[in-house]
Amino acid sequence: MRFEPTKYGLINVATGRLLEDEGWTMSDPQSPEPSLVRAVYDNREFTVRKELDGIYRYANWMPIKRTLKHSCAPVTYKSRGLARYLDLENLYITFSGWNPRIGAKMKTCSFKETEAYSVLARMDKREKRVLVVQSAGNTARAFAQVCSDNGIPVVICVPLDSCHDLWFRKPLDKCVKLIAVPHGCDYYDAIALGEKLATDPAFFLEGGAKNVARRDGMGTTILSFAEKVGRIPDAYFQAVGSGTGAIAAWENAQRLAADGRFGENHMRVYVAQNAPFSLMYDSWKQESRKLVDLEPEEGRRQAEVILAKVLSNRKPPYGIAGGLFDTLKESGGDVFLADNNDIVFWLLQFRNLEGYDLLPAACVAVTALDKAVKEGKVKKDEYIMLNCTGGGTLGAISKGFVLKQPDLVLEPDLDAEQVVRKVKNLF
């Protein structure tokens, strides 16, 4: 069947000014301060498109022009094992990963697939420029797989230290190019590399948190909860690197409240980081909209020692209008920390309780829930959504996998002209 593009406009979160999406609009050029823009959909009611496959069942609240092959939606189910362990009556787990037993079939085992299938479907299929994606690991794997499956050219910039995360069931299509910054560099360095590449008109940036398609793709996790439970959760838990997923959850909770059939939005957003990388935790605890100072070398050191390396963004959308600071303030939420020992504990315990393995970042979210229960921040009978953002790796790669090797490793001190020239030679 022919897919009709979703109808929507954009709104400046800071000022309320409405504007049109010119195809890849990331911000309001008339905004007096840095601000996210948010999609405003013509269809204000949450409607599940059961005739569409995978994640596109939520297409009415995704800013897309088309649908792509092989997507899967997040799966929400009522927890038994973990709920019993934490003595919670209404704990629901929204899982994005590989667990066919519950209907979860994300081949890359990460909720970053929700971003990829939304962002790439926002692109015009006639686009001639090459998309540039910057990642600490999971986003790279998701975009690489989706682009490979759908023949979409992409350049993905990652730290070389994260390349062990770039496993796939079979070799990727040649349309996917992987560019790495050397050992000792981090996600911030990969971001800088992508920005240099995008100075050339042959390339364009995916946009990160500023891309409404990325946020609304990630926001399908809470739509999965609403479809299953029929209401907005009282409390929401997620591990964060940039905080974009939590921002997206809050935005969709507001849309659900405006619908009127899912209750009022009293959802408290609880997020967590992997200590010692605690940039947003430290800023929040100081009640500061501005991020606390973090020297580049110290940030790299912290990123190197944490198990959940995907949670090591030194440039998150925290203080920008509509960003994580505003989400936490408006929702009455909080930030937690989980150390590596917490992650190892929940890697083992969660599998015992729920029957499948989680990625380290998702274990950070479980730690936050555990701490919130112990601190009395959630009540036994509240409706709780635990966003488990990845897992099932053991099952997904049980029949083997291949690692994608970098096509280039580029030093971070190269200028933009050098970067562009070297990458163009790959095509």
Explain what this protein looks like in three dimensions.
The structure is a single chain. The chain is α/β, with parallel strands linked by helices and about 425 residues long. The chain folds into 2 domains: about 75-105 and about 215-395, 3-Layer(aba) Sandwich (Rossmann fold), CATH 3.40.50; about 130-200 and about 395-425, Rossmann fold (3-Layer(aba) Sandwich). Helix content is about 35%, strand content about 20%. It is built from 14 helices and 18 strands. The protein has a 6-stranded mixed β-sheet, sandwiched between helices. It has a 5-stranded parallel β-sheet with strand order 12-8-9-11-18. The protein has a 3-stranded antiparallel β-sheet with strand order 2-1-3, with no helix packed on it. Strand 13, helix 7 (about 245-260) and strand 14 (about 270-275) form a beta-alpha-beta unit. Helix 2 packs across helix 3. The chain is globular and about 60 Å long.
Short structural description:
With 427 residues, this protein is α/β, with parallel strands linked by helices. Helices cover 33% and strands 18% of the residues.
Largest sheet: 6 strands, mixed
Shape: globular
From the N-terminal CA to the C-terminal CA, the straight-line distance is: 34 Å
Measured as a percent range, the helix fraction is 25-40%
- Helix-strand category: alpha/beta
Q: Return the CATH topology of the largest domain.
A: Rossmann fold
CATH architecture of the largest domain: 3-Layer(aba) Sandwich
Counting copies of identical and different chains, the oligomeric state is: single chain
Mean pLDDT score: 95
Strand content: 15-25%
Computed CA radius of gyration, to the nearest angstrom: 20 Å
